[in-house]
Amino acid sequence: MIRRRGVLAFGLMPLAPRPALAGAQVEEPLADAVRSALAMAIANAAPPRPAFDSTEDRLRYLRWLGSTSEHLKRHTAEHMTRVEFLETLWYEAKRAGLEPSLVLGLVQVESGFRKYVVSSAGARGYMQVMPFWARLIGDGDASRLFHMQTNLRFGCVILRHYLNLENGDLFMALGRYNGSRGRGEYPAAVLGARKAWEPGDKPAR
Predict the structure, then answer these.
(1) Residue 35 in contact with residue 44, Cβ under 8 Å?
(2) Segment 47-87, tens digit of pLDDT
(3) CATH number reported for the structural domain that contains residue 79 in this entry
(4) How many CB atoms lie within 10 A of CB 108?
């Protein structure tokens, strides 16, 4: 995952110029136990099936889904596409122990909610997952990183991995995700975008 110095679009996806943030993540060696744990975490890509402990929790989720879908209109016009994306993002974020607003902020900064963008370094999709992750913890097929749920699952699992490496320090974990560990630009951008996606707020323009 790395911030782009320019993105390419596949098919008919629109390409809007976006400012680039520094980032050039390099592949890091993984201990066998870590590699196995991460591989297990991205396996079993079943369709999202949220479960709730109470009716109030379910109603809270449905309110979030409705309001966030409205906010997402400026990025994705088609209603069912928005709902499918948000249902999947919520599921994968919660599965990885992340807040959906954080993942929404990261997707906004990384790809502008564009499914098929490719960075100059080859990072792919919504969460700009580098192809080497498909080899390290997946089945080796980097083309699957354009599949919505696969991309969101990889991105969430990788961010959780970096959070674990950084003992819960979100600033440093975001720096690892971007390849700019210790620098403030990228974490500030993601955390600013996250605030705009928190319940009750509107996304930044």
Answers:
(1) no
(2) 778 889 999 999 999 999 999 999 999 999 999 999 999 99
(3) 1.10.530.10
(4) 22
Domain that holds residue 58: 7-14+29-35+52-197
Whether the CB-CB separation of 164 and 176 falls below 8 Å is answered with no
Q: Specify if 186 maps to a domain.
A: yes
Query: What's the pLDDT at 45?
Result: 66
Segment among 18-27, 56-65, 114-123 with least mean pLDDT: 18-27
Residue 75 CB partners (closer than 8 Å, separation 6+) = 108, 112, 113
pLDDT at 8 exceeding the cut of 60: no
| 45 lies in some domain | no
User: Strands (DSSP E) along 7-112, which ranges?
Assistant: 7-8
Average pLDDT, integer, range 140-146: 94
Q: Are 59 and 53 in contact (CB under 8 A)?
A: no
Q: Nearest-CA neighbor of 149 among 85, 101, 102, 97?
A: 85
Domain-located, residue 44: no
**What 8-state DSSP symbol labels residue 11?**
T
Domains in the chain, number: 1
d(CA 40, CA 176): 21
Whether 193 contacts 105, CB under 8 Å: yes
Tokens of 158: 């990788």
